[in-house]
Fold this sequence. Notes:
Number of domains: 2
Oligomer: single chain
Strand order of the largest sheet: 2-4-3-6-8-7
Radius of gyration: 21 Å
CATH architecture of the largest domain: 3-Layer(aba) Sandwich
Amino acid sequence: xxxxxxxxxxxxxxxxxxxxxxxxxxxxxxxxxxxxxxxxxxxxxxxxxxxxxxxxxxxxxxxxxxxxxxxxxxxxxxxxxxxxxxxxxxxxxxxxxxxxxxxxxxxxxxxxxxxxxxxxxxxxxxxxxxxxxxxxxxxxxxxxxxxxxxxxxxxxxxxxxxxxxxxxxxxxxxxxxxxxxxxxxxxxxxxxxxxxxxxxxxxxxxxxxxxxxxxxxxxxxxxxxxxxxxxxxxxxxxxxxxxxxxxxxxxxxxx
Length: 255
């Protein structure tokens, strides 16, 4: 019996990978058809990753087909509710201008931010606005977003694994907004968008090109300290100012 299960599992993997290589990435029928493989009732033989393959494909298609930020927001909330059916606190998809030259990406919204429907509030928000104003930007001409879009899942802070599952959603945001420069606040944002494993003290001030696989385009980005860190370490504001000057230059040269 164990050999039978293994054979079904191996056959499913081979067939699924073959379909993906052929460019078949959309399910036409909800019900599985028994073409010498298995019926829907036989899915007890599948492991967790195999059972999720169709859901992952459908989620990717759902995001890929979005043509504007409004559609993407609706699709993203649907995916989050599907993947995390337990309660999560709050949902912030973006703020600001959807055709902005500058995009700011933070890690996760905080509870206080959710309650106020803002990505950055209080002292953090005040500092961020001052930083943007220094290079002639404001909430009216900047696009703000985060990695996870929700502050907590089942009363737990989103993990890097949770975030990496949804990185393709953030890249779709970038594709639709088409900014000239992305500010990546902190090591987690930098790592998830660039693939580096370096910490913020290595990446800070470094410039990157974010690869958008779906459109085969690249967007300029820079890694910076989070505003929260600058509040705790005001001696680092000189480095942050140098990064802001670089952001301004990057936007001007890409015009």
